[in-house]
## 1
Amino acid sequence: MRTTKLSTTAGLLGACALTALLGAGTAVAGSGDSGSSGDDRAPTEAGTSFRTAQEVQQGLRATADASTGDYLYWSVPADAGQRPTVKATVKLPDSAARPSGATWRIDVYDGLRRRQSCMYGTQSRAAAQDATSVGLSCTLRTVRAWSEQWANDPLPGTYYVRLTAAVMTPSDQGLPVSAEVEVTSKEVGGSSAVDGSLAAPLVPGSTTQEAAAASDDASADASDEKNGSSASQALATGEPEDGWSSGWWSDRWVWTAAGGILAALAGIGGYALTRGTGRPSRVPPGL
């Protein structure tokens, strides 16, 4: 009877562990690269500085017509646990009208305007004489929910993409080009999770607007109410479609729970194998 009960308990625990593992597998499988959503909200022009950068959501392809020598800026939100990849394509004019090939380059800056290094990708490329387009890419490090003040780790917030011709001759300057930029992210998950989170994402201008709203209020109650509305409006600019994550949840919780269930199952199985069958029938009860 005891063996039957232990077998039933072990079976239930095994089913729970299998359910947890399947749930974790589904979460991991659903956190792949974000593709194009087919939305038509992508901007068709670019800014010329950090302040005028055109906002674009991840997965949308932004386009712009410009001239060689222009600085093109876009801004995109990136949240904790994401590994953004920036891809840019510059379509060049006819080679007959292009005397030499310029060198194109993309740079990515965070909300504090710190330049972020690329893990891999072709960040800079010279256009061949007969080339019709130039492709560039930059995969950033995984965005962390929290970091030391002295570190240059990517943090949640707004990221700026700058595309320009880094090296060119005077004859190249002013030639018409068209640019396409798309940012996608891979959800890395709990492997990059940290114990901590920022008080607020690094969205430029949110602190300034909140302080200005507080100074304009006459009473404390009115000040609190206005601060809340102003902060929400400021942080809504450049915010991901699903909102900013809190930073405390990751799939490590699922794997930890599944590991605990498997450990309990192993302990019960080991006990069932080593406890024996009880008192032998040849031994008197008094002994």
Note: The radius of gyration is 28 Å.
## 2
Amino acid sequence: MPEQHYEPEPALAGAAAGGAVDLDVVEAGTPERRPQGPDGSGPRGKPRSLWSDAWRDLRRNPVFLVSALVILFLVLISLWPSAITSGSPLTCDLSKAQEGSRAGHPFGFDGQGCDVYTRTVYGARTSVAVGVLATLGVAVLGSVLGALAGFLGGVWDSVLSRVTDVFFAIPVVLGGLVLLSVVTSDTVWPVIGFIVLLGWPQISRIARSAVITARQNDYVQAARALGASRSRLVLRHIAPNAVAPVIVVATIALGTYIALEATLSYLGVGLKPPSVSWGIDISAASPYIRNAPHALLWPSGALAVTVLAFIMLGDAVRDALDPKLR
């Protein structure tokens, strides 16, 4: 049987003889291996942040999608109410008082002969404006004071804690009756100022707790050891990781502030005519609910749907931003 001889590959043969290995040849013959994901199914991409994970979860949450669509519709009709109604909320005809729905007036008329549909549409502008502006004011004021108390500690934290205790002891509705009863303005600003005045302690407590928790993390201690200034610690390391609880609480509170404005307007100390508000319409329609229930049900239904949409949005955001619920 003839003797067979096996020749090594050129690159390996050169190495065996003491020569240099041609790395280009070896690398060309070796398939490139890319980093694999945790399950080995595909390439491993860049790690996602908390916000990207939250947005991915929100897009898959039907509660978030439904509430976001409702809120988007409310915002659009608040900015452009004339897009879905051509009438004026202040145009009334006493000869049509308490009449039911008819062509061009699907919600009927109230006790003053005003079109309920038009007033309901224009009432969304007031509710959304009060809710959004009050929430922004509460979030900014409460976050700043709470973050300073949690980061500085000491006397500042003690003083702010006692001040928040005082504000928590004030009943909201009773405080509104006392403070707003002396205001004669018919704009939304007194109501917004009152909500900010009594709403900031809640956000302040949340921000303080979040900052204290974030301040104890290892990356903050490492940045402090490397000589980072206080402003850099707060803005670059603590605030981005402490803002999530504030966003969740503020989103849920937005619906509560809308309901609070309607309550104060219903009691006569919030917005006043000729302002258009769901609370004003509910208060005006209450005496004749038996004769014209539609004048009460439509603004009440719009208020309930709006508050529920913001609360559902807050719940969805909370579930997406809270890692413990994943």
Note: Confidence is low (pLDDT under 50) at residues 6-35, 37-43.
## 3
Amino acid sequence: MLGPVILAASRSDRMRRLISAAPVTKQVVDRFIPGEDVDDIVPVVRSLTEQGLELTMDVVGEDITNPAQAAAARDAYLELVDRLKPLELGTRAEMSVKLSMFGQALEGGHELALSNVRPVVEAAAEIGTTVTLDAEDHTTLDSMFAIHEELRKDFPQTGCVIQAYLFRTEADARRLAESGSRVRLVKGAYKEPASVAYQDKHEIDRAYVRILRTLMQGEGYPMIGSHDPRLIAIGQELAHQAGRKPDAYEFQMLYGIRTEEHLRLAAEGHRMRVYTAYGTDWYGYFMRRLAEKPANLRFFARSMLTKG
């Protein structure tokens, strides 16, 4: 039951201040969020790609309260694209965006988010890469999927994220698989009510496998977002059953978690993409990663002890 507690802490200004001020916090955060600006992240991109890994990059920050902040978020991604261009990595370095950062929750937010994210998607396409729209809480998903569909008219490589714990996701997966979309499947990291989401871990895991089977048997490109060794093995088996070659799907894991597994999968010839967040507004991102899988606490502690 740690997840709801951690999510509550992620929304508490008092907890934000306490955790941010703790001496150990920066050391822990630096392990999993490798920089505050684009100058910090470019060497990380070089290092990971030299090791045979791929990346999706997230400029963290979601507390957008006015259109100027949404425009600043857009500009931060445009700066990232500009810095990626000379590296000539193509789809080995893509981007993940949360539409809340682009103004989705503001008045007229659907149109505002679309108008802000489109230039990022266009700029990404110009350097040979793409963008994935992250899933947020269930109230935002109809807007996210509509924006995804609109962007795919001109940029069919635009991806999206679906969350296994939501009841709606099996139907969403069937629709996306039929349309040939790039889809990252995750378990889910937001506190959702029992009226819309599974609450039991085993039910979520079973839904994850059902949905992943649908994606593997479909026309799209599945992205397996999980650190769970059992789900990783099941993903490999489902890909084999569907006749997919290693370049027809990929694994995705968070920067700083199970690093040796990243390298193992890449060495075996799998596409292994590392979700790499950076920015100064790290608190919400960091707390949701803990809430998504409280066992991450063990990963964090072990990583701090082993430095590897």
Note: The beta strands are 54-59, 93-97, 131-133, 159-163, 182-186, 221-225, 250-254, 272-278.
## 4
Amino acid sequence: MHHPWILLRGLTREAAHWGAFAEAFRHALPGAHVVVQDLPGNGLLHRAVSPATVRGMVDACRAQLAAQGVRPPFRVLAMSLGAMVATEWARVAPEELVGCVLINTSLRPFSPFYQRLRPASYLQVLRCATPWSSPLTIEQTVLRMTSNLAHARGAVVDDWVALRRQRPVSASNALRQLVAAARYTAPVATPLVPVSDSPRILLLASQNDRLVSCQCSQAIARAWGVPLRMHPSAGHDLPLDDAQWVIGQVRSWMEGSP
């Protein structure tokens, strides 16, 4: 059965930041209904107020999908803050989710703050938040922080700058999203109980993620007893750096699911 796939991005990023990955994902899963969803305050919803809690983001996502006529159960593929939203969704409404793929996320209570955001990135994150930074400076900084192939991915900066100018995320919304992420505490046990001994959560992480330590995903995998697949060279934006690897991992995981 083809359950709809919901794709969720991270902090202050929008559906369009999936870039070519979303179409490649659709192409690799023939017949799948793929929905790229914006969190309130980002993308097409950039004028909305971002919920100050991850639970509020879950409620907003569920309401948006219902309004669009997209019905559960869903599969969710999510990055970073989006993966927190997927985790909370699985906690509050597990019957709505068939499975989740969580990419380069970090969750309390499993990891300390200095692994959840590497100290070497603090200054760069701050630079992105300052109102006097130009859209070009911000997006070049984001690319350097999140891609280990920035030299080969430079073309995406122009697209990201255009998105930032067209649908800017307000400083207050960015702060609300940051606070929601910092305050969120995940369930200690897996929020999606395995079916026929097949885990319903897959973790994907980049061994050389320079923004969030891969130790965060390792800690979640141990606590929840779910599989973790590690990419040896990609950066935080794993779907950007190696889309085909992500798609291959998802397909092999689905083939092993009931």
Note: Residues 26 and 34 are 6 Å apart (CA to CA).
